[in-house]
């Protein structure tokens, strides 16, 4: 396998910054986030897992769908589909696979989501395999692994002051382009798997329909705050809401944008209709829906389990609701 | 039920533009909007089916889902809309000539072809009557192909009854009966007063060669169908309902309208009670 030093990789990235948007791990306010980078010296090269997933680069927290010009009774809609190519550096296997999971819904299930599809087509993912499993990681229980290249265009593996380079797609090959001359003597990536024995039951082994009416959900929901953090940090949660917002108004012409924003099925008014009726009024119904969506509904609808085992929700939940514990509990509760 | 491919090849979130051709008051805070599609966008809407729906945009506020309130007619669409939330309030502020957006047709539909030769009972509650009007229009236009048509039409108050100026047409159609009820009567009300289930008890329908179609508030759908099945012996698969759910895309992406792994927007909105009865989660 090829080897590239960190400084040579920076040379390539610096050249591409003009024509592409580069997104890479960066320390902001004491946490590591995937952020737009204008100079490779701002990149944080040593990191475990950024607080937010790369979901935002394909499915932004707020995204403009089109703009609306209103001039008296005349209305014009203007397309605003994204055009700028982007490169995301340092994508961990869990996050790269998360986008494959969202592909199953947004791209593979018709009709295709134009926005997500275009972001996907415009993006090159330079992945980075994991040297170890983090404290809350459980990808190996969710069909993943720290060295899984699924969803990446290139997978880098850290070796000393550089990386072994595994080119996976044409896009990945294009990324290195003429710079393949910078690469590189042969290198052997570290061998051995990083699997660790796991006590987490496989979601497919749980009889989900039979657990739906368990009293367990009442007990679990008692401490849920409906704060939605689990959904926002999740690489595969994709609920959204749509509305119009004003942009500008002049000379009798008003301009609006139609936007979609992240939403979460755990939020209180998620299912409430205009007349006030809310079929999912109770917290336990909403919490249960999120867990079922991940492990039962999403696989039935689109194929993959909607969890990558990234462990962010385990780490971030303010009341310590641990999705791996939920799986263990559900495997145990009778029947 | 019967599904259809959505016509979208490009951006399924972008609406077609339409002009409000006429607006009629149907009842208190309820208006019928006639929409003419602009820029040749009518093609997608030429062949929709009773039971399908569309998203209607009040530009500057957003969009919401509404069942088609009429059968297809020369590219003009009709929606019966009650002022309830932000989008419907804005729509009620618009006038003839104003531009709105329409996205669709979406969802599945009532399999009216497979109901040929059967007696039909149509039960509508309040604004829930809107998606049932195309069913009635279709059956009346193809009257010879169906058996008895019994319409049970209900509202909380006489001022909330929709399509009142069409009742005489419905009543005078061959082999067609219309039964009206309101929860609370007013002066001059000379029909039944009480819940639609009281009316159903009086009509006492036979399940023999009969299909029912219900739309209304969730609680009404629940009790009407419970009565049809438990009291009158209908099999769940004889009873069709169309369910309302909050939606933000209508194309199976936004996640909002699920009942178990089914999505009301693409797997519905039309279901039989056999399907609804199998859901773990209640629509109530």
Task: Explain what this protein looks like in three dimensions.
The complex is a heterodimer of chains A (335) and B (284). With 335 residues, chain A is α/β, with parallel strands linked by helices. Chain A has one domain. Chain A has helices at 6-16, 93-106, 114-121, 170-176, 208-211, 216-221, 229-233, 283-302, 312-316, 323-332; strands spanning 2-5, 21-28, 31-37, 62-71, 74-79, 86-91, 123-128, 154-159, 162-167, 240-250, 253-262. Chain A has a seven-stranded mixed β-sheet. In chain A, a hairpin with a 2-residue loop joins strand 10 and strand 11 (253-262). With 284 residues, chain B is an alpha/beta fold. Chain B has two domains: 16-106, Translation factors (Elongation Factor Tu (Ef-tu), domain 3); 112-242, 3-Layer(aba) Sandwich (Rossmann fold). Helices cover 18% and strands 31% of the residues of chain B. Chain B has helices at residues 86-93, 133-141, 167-172, 196-203, 218-230, 273-278; strands at residues 16-27, 30-37, 53-58, 62-67, 76-82, 99-106, 119-125, 149-155, 176-182, 192-193, 210-215, 239-242, 258-259, 262-263, 270-272. Chain B is globular, with a radius of gyration of 18 Å. Residues 1-9 of chain B have low confidence and may be disordered. The chains are: A alpha/beta (335), B alpha/beta (284).
Notable features of this structure?
heterodimer; A: 335 residues; alpha/beta; seven-stranded mixed beta sheet; four-stranded antiparallel beta sheet; 10 helices; 24% strand; B: 284 residues; Elongation Factor Tu (Ef-tu), domain 3; Rossmann fold; six-stranded antiparallel beta sheet; 6 helices; 15 strands; globular; disordered N terminus
């Amino acid at each position: 396998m090829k080897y590239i030093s960190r400084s040579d990789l920076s040379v390539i990235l610096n050249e591409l910054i003009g024509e592409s948007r580069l997104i890479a791990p960066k320390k902001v306010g004491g946490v590591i986030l995937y952020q737009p980078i204008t100079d490779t010296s701002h990149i944080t090269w040593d990191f475990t897992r950024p607080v937010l997933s790369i979901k935002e680069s394909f499915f932004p927290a707020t995204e403009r769908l089109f703009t609306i010009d209103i001039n008296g009774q005349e209305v014009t809609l203007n397309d605003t589909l994204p055009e700028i190519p982007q490169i995301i550096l340092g994508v961990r296997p869990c996050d790269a696979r998360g986008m494959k999971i969202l592909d199953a819904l947004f791209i593979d299930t018709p009709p295709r989501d134009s926005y997500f599809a275009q972001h996907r087509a415009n993006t090159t993912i330079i992945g980075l395999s994991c040297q170890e499993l983090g404290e809350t990681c459980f990808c190996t229980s969710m069909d993943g692994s720290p060295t899984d290249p699924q969803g990446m265009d290139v997978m880098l593996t850290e070796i000393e002051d550089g990386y072994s380079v595994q080119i996976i797609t044409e896009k990945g090959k294009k990324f290195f382009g003429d710079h393949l001359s910078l690469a590189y003597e042969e290198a052997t990536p570290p061998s051995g798997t990083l699997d660790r024995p796991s006590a987490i039951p496989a979601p497919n082994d749980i009889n989900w329909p039979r657990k739906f009416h368990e009293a367990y959900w009442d007990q679990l929901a008692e401490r849920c705050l409906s704060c939605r953090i689990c959904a926002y940090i999740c690489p595969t949660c994709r609920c959204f809401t749509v509305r119009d917002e004003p942009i500008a108004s002049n000379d009798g012409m008003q301009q609006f944008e139609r936007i979609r924003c992240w939403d979460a099925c755990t939020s209180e008014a998620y299912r409430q209709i205009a007349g006030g009726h809310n079929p999912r009024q109770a917290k336990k119904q909403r919490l249960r829906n999120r867990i079922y969506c991940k492990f039962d509904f999403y696989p039935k609808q689109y194929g993959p389990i909607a969890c990558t085992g990234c462990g962010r929700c385990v780490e971030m939940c303010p009341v310590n609701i641990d999705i791996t514990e939920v799986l263990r509990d559900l495997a145990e509760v009778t029947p | 039920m019967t599904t259809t491919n959505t016509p979208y090849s490009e951006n399924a979130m972008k609406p077609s533009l339409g002009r409000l051709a006429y607006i009629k008051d149907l009842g208190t805070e309820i208006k019928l909007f006639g929409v003419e599609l602009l820029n040749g966008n009518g093609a997608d809407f030429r062949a929709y089916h009773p039971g399908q729906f569309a998203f209607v945009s009040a530009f500057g506020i957003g969009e919401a889902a509404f069942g088609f309130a009429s059968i297809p007619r020369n590219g003009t669409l009709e929606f019966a809309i009650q002022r309830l939330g932000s989008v419907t309030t804005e729509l009620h502020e618009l006038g003839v000539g104003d531009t709105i957006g329409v996205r669709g047709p979406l969802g599945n539909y009532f399999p009216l072809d497979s109901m040929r030769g059967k007696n039909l009972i149509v039960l509508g509650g309040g604004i829930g009557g809107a998606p049932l009007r195309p069913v009635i229009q279709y059956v009346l236009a193809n009257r010879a192909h169906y058996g008895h048509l019994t319409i049970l039409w209900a509202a909380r108050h006489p001022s909330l009854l929709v399509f009142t100026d069409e009742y005489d047409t419905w009543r005078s159609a061959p082999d067609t009966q219309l039964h009206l009820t309101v929860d609370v009567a007013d002066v001059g009300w000379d029909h039944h007063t009480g819940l639609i289930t009281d009316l159903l008890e009086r009509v006492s329908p036979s399940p023999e060669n009969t299909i029912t179609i219900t739309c209304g508030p969730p609680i009404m759908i629940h009790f009407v169908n419970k009565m049809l099945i438990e009291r009158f012996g209908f099999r769940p698969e004889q009873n069709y309902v169309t369910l309302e759910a909050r939606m933000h895309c209508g194309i199976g992406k936004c996640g909002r309208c699920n009942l178990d792994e089914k999505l009301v927007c693409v797997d519905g909105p039309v279901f039989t009670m056999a399907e609804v009865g199998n859901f773990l989660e209640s629509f109530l």
